[in-house]
Amino acid sequence: MHISKPRSILLAGAVAVTLSATALPAAFAAPSSTAVISEVYGGGGNSGATLTRDFVELANAGSAAYDLSGFSVQYLPGTPSAGSLWQVSALTGSVAPGGRYLVAQAAGTGGTVALPTPDATGTVAMAAASGTVALVSGTTPLTCKTAADCAADTRIVDLVGYGSAVVREGSGPAAGASATASVARGTSLADTDNNAADLTAGAPTPVNAAGETSGGTSPGDPGNPTEPGTVRVHDIQGTTRVSPLNGQSVTGVPGIVTGVRTSGSRGFWIQDATPDADPRTSEGVFVFTGSTAPAVAVGDSVLVSGKVDEYYPSTTTQSITEITAPRVTVLSSGNALPAPVVLDAASVPNAYVPSASGGSIDAVALDPTKYALDLYESLEGTRVQIADARVTGATTAYDEVWVTVKPNENPTQRGGTLYSSYTDQNTGRIKVMSLDTTRPFPVANVGDELSGTTTGVMDYASFGGYNLQATELGTLTDHHLKREVTRKQKDKELAVATYNVENLDANDEQAKFDTLAAGVAVNLSSPDIVSLEEIQDDNGAVNDGTVGSEATLKRFTDAIVKAGGPKYAWRYIAPENNKDGGEPGGNIRNVFLYNPERVDFVDRAGGDATTPVTVVKAKNSVTLSASPGRIAPASDAWADSRKPLVGEFRFHGKTVFVIGNHFASKGGDQPLHGRYQEPKRSSETKRVKQAAEVNTFVKSLLAADKSARVITLGDLNDFAFSPTMDALTDGKVLKPLITTLPVGEQYSYVYEGNSQTLDHILTSPGVLRFDYDVVHINAEFADQASDHDPQIVRVDVNAQN
Fold it and tell me: Would strands 645-651 and 600-601 be described as parallel, antiparallel, or unpaired?
């Protein structure tokens, strides 16, 4: 199977960028508007390569033939030594206007595909990762070995340095060349004398003067056909998630341009106006132009030649079928667009995705009438339309918003869509983005509505999966979602809250402190105890060994007072430097804030980063060996992860044990929308071990005093229905309070349009009377101080059976 590299490493499909050259030697000749070096590949015949030979491809951007008689292509190692010499390959013939000219170089022992018939042949064994190639007027070897000296040699028509080449044009060499990637210009053949900008990496696409490509031939010039070829878009897309033509070159694929993306992963979508009768085969496809803005417009009728590629945004996602290294002919403009497919509750299936027992679904035949993800895949690259869609995930900083096309699918009480089990996915969710960069993107909260119709192209991305790239956005209807304010605790109630404050440190802006502080003082009505997650050390991500959080906590507690709350005291145990995970240098930890006017913290010496807290049973009491303390900090369950903080509090003469937690994140889990089904939750193993450690500690407390009041809370990074929760509650020693709420209120976090629960408060059987609330102030809002909603429980410590 042909699988593209991530675009962080290379751009699949070589295209050009028109930029002003920087750091350009003053003596260089003017950029060429005719003959240029269009592609360089030194990985031929290497291990892992497809092609058997290295090559240099020339092109002519001019309007007349360019005579190469007496010219040469010359090669110099990327880091030349005193003994390095330019190696010469003589040329004959000419390059047609708009045409190509292929120079074959040395062959290796790897690869399986031959170059098309070369127009000239050399014997140079070019390096795959670094080197310099020059198009020279003459066949006498060059002698220059620096960029400045070569710039002064007027025989050089064009020069390309790649990898780490010392000799190059402009600010730097072209990046990304390897055994499987060439560096190439795009369709415009732009030459700004800046190799780093003019050439990008991608799959090698050699073309000779006859228009032939590797693995087959195409009559005439495949770059500018005037008649459609034999391949249509639905032939490229096929009936599975991977194209049957993956890795093959195609010529003259017809379509109407339906959308253009001018930033990020640039390119455009085409859709065949004459579809086939198979609902599994998409009629649209993305044409990837890399760093160059596409030179087409919506409504253009085009013929596209290039290479079919399955681009995987990451190793666990599904792929995007693309045409790369495109050569485009515009036949006409202003054409009517194909009618969009309407996505609604009737058209989207209730089942989410087929199972492959944990394996890849790439080769599984699509069934768009049965599975939602199969339907979306069968529409990849085609025009779709939604109407009056409820927002289920607020607008992000990246101008994207989640909506549902199924208004009655697992609704929450505030307009979201509840994620309630691994087997009951919400199939109507879809992410909406906009291709129109001239209009501001709507700022929406959960429960708002994109009213009217939203029309665009179905795309796929690593975050969120299938998304609608809108060409026409609906109108935002604001349903005025309000931030909740919980009631004030009564005098006899101990109020305990948990709040993930998202990497708070003393270097953060005051606005973040003030907003979080208002959440504690106003929305949570000043709890007696607040267990905080993600308090960083005093200089945040600066990795200099600092582990204390005094300045961070002082700023936070001062802001709470300013917001009308009490003057909180705090307790924490500083971690060993860079031992608790999170942002490197940040040293996040769990912290207890408490109001000393209402509750006492029982300080017991001995707690530190490495000493485990234990239960001490006396004649008539149970205490902790240290307060604050840490649960089993040496256990491998907590390796590179936050250790639970345990504290002993006294309220109205009664002891209450509080355990603040921040379990391992879900990073590394396979996505719900990915190629592996069912997805593996690899991070779960660690959380289950962490939950078991906390459960063991709680059992030791209850073994010493079965009526002990224990409150376990924090960001557990897992769901109420997860194995993590099963391990934490084993033996019914803890009760998850989230399950006591109405179903539509059982969430504290919104991810990819799913309202779900990662934060929890659990109580031991000794907590007999409580009032519990998730206070929705962040997760559903575009403007949020944290991505988590806080929770609070109010406990009557004197309640009796």
Answer: antiparallel
